[in-house]
Write a structure and sequence with these properties.
Number of strands: 0
Structural class: mainly alpha
CATH topology: Arc Repressor Mutant, subunit A
Number of domains: 1
Strand content: under 5%
CATH superfamily: Winged helix-like DNA-binding domain superfamily/Winged helix DNA-binding domain
Shape: elongated
Distance between the termini: 14 Å
Mean pLDDT: 95
Order of helices and strands: HHHH
Helix content: over 70%
CATH architecture: Orthogonal Bundle
Length: 65
């Protein structure tokens, strides 16, 4: 769990924010878009790139994804 927290801290603020809303708070893309005041397509894009960045950060720490 510590490794995941470290990896998340390396993400950009917008990536952390989007993962917080969609993964941790379990909001749908539409709900996250409403809460954040963003278009749905922007939320989808940020989720994709945030998860990609998180996967890379975890791999750099030796965690297989």
């Amino acid at each position: 769990m510590v490794v995941v927290a470290e990896a998340i801290r390396t993400l950009s603020a917008s990536h952390r924010e989007i993962l917080n809303e969609t993964v941790l708070r379990r909001r749908t893309v539409n709900e996250a878009a409403d809460v954040l005041g963003l278009p749905v397509e922007t939320v989808k894009s940020r989720v994709y790139y945030a998860l990609r960045a998180l996967r890379i950060a975890l791999e750099e720490r030796g965690v297989a994804t």
